[in-house]
Amino acid sequence: MSDREAEFREFVGARMESLRGLAYLTCGDWQVAEDAVLAALSRLYVKWSRIDNPEAYARSAVVRAAIDETRRPWWRREKSHSHAMPDRPEPDATHAVEDRLQIRAALATLPPRQRAVLVLRFLEGLSVQQTAAALGCPEGTVKAYTSRGLDALRRILGTEWEVHHEATV
Amino acid sequence: MRQLSDLLREAKVEGPPLRYDVDDVVAAGRSRRRRRNSGWALAAVVAVAASIGVPQILARPQTRPSILPAVPSPTAATPDLLSLSALSQPYTVGDLRIERPDTVGLDGSMAEIRRSGTEVGRLWILRPEIIKFPWGTGTTVDTATINGRPAKWVRATSGDDGPEYLQWEYADGATAVVWPGRELSRAQAQAVAEAFVPAPAQPALIGFRVDDLPGDYRLITAGTVIGRVEPMRLTFLTSQAAEARLRDAQVFGSATERPGKSITVSLTRAGESKYPDGKVRCADLDCYRWDKSAGVLFKAHGDSVADLRQVLGSVSPAADLDDRGTWFPVDDAVPVSARLPRR
Q1: Distances (CA, A) of B199 to B65, B171, B254, B328
Q2: Under a CB-based contact definition with an 8 Å cutoff, are residues B154 and B162 in contact?
Q3: Calpha distance A127→A56 (Å, rounded)
Q4: Predicted complex ipTM
């Protein structure tokens, strides 16, 4: 095994689970998220020796792949019968589980690119500029999606939260 | 006050076990590199051929036969039951290869459009009676002509980021769709559409079978390829919901269709597994059964663990997953009771 491949393996081993979570929050389906991660990391493998910032490349590729998955024609057809996010939160004995279901259900109501913007900005802590670069869209779009996405989450969850600690609009 | 980052972090915990590991990623990367290299070699050959005036063998024929819709023919043994068949055959347009359909359903069949081994779009041939094709608002953004027939470009959802697709009538009363990815231009999508020639439906094959299905579930779709975006799979819907789709002649379930009244059984290759060989193990509404000798992991998802256990107790893989000759016709891979009657 070459040193480069060993480096790649180490990177994948360390980041695969986290990237899957990122993809899941973007597309709302664990299985599709895994496929998106596999597709993105296989592309990274081919380019590994030429990529300066594999972390940023992987993050961007995974989110874009997850968004692309939601644009496929079978997405809507199969969505209600797969492992997708629940349509509505269900009560649970523990707050953590309840929170999890509620935020998943709330995210599921947003278009995938809006979800991706929120996840990149408030989970990954990217700036507007970095998020725009990751998604390949104008900074104005990121700002608009951030605003719309946060409004929608507030409306659905009926709550306020701190959002300014990781990134500024 | 909670932080949004905490909520997002909470939302992604407790996922199911990863189906892939580092070895799978490396294998996929090597495969991608091989495909890319062979794709470049092919492109070079095509370029040289074009430069020395070799006739364009990839172009569609100048004269087209009369166009008939792709109608699945009933199988001899069960003429009164609907057959899930492949409604297109592989063909080539320039550097694009349209593969054998990998998904067949009540509504038609879908095939990958590939360039240098990478998927760049989908060709979806709908059965003649399937006339409703709603996706979101379905706004027409442009019109075109495909082989003299009207076609249109449709944006699936409102807003500026909805996917666009090309929809045209390939025969009287029969609709087809090209669903381009980012790397397929409108012109290329239209070339794919123009080169499509309906052919007699072919039986779709799948690498496993289900012999016992509880309740009144009916087969609605089958994914027939291993190792692509989705695993090989059979999806069943309760008879009422499945018949409603057929009755309403629509591609997608209606917005009011109750989610969850379904069972999906899938197969992925797994030389190793954390699950015990031959035993059914369940977590929430996902159940797994690993078949060590065949090197496959079956998974079932649905509403009832008891139902899923019953299904997984009856699944069996084809004799050799690498030999399609041993696979089962989709129609024969499920109990007869799971098939819908022809209308």
Answers
A1: 11, 12, 30, 22
A2: no
A3: 13
A4: 0.79
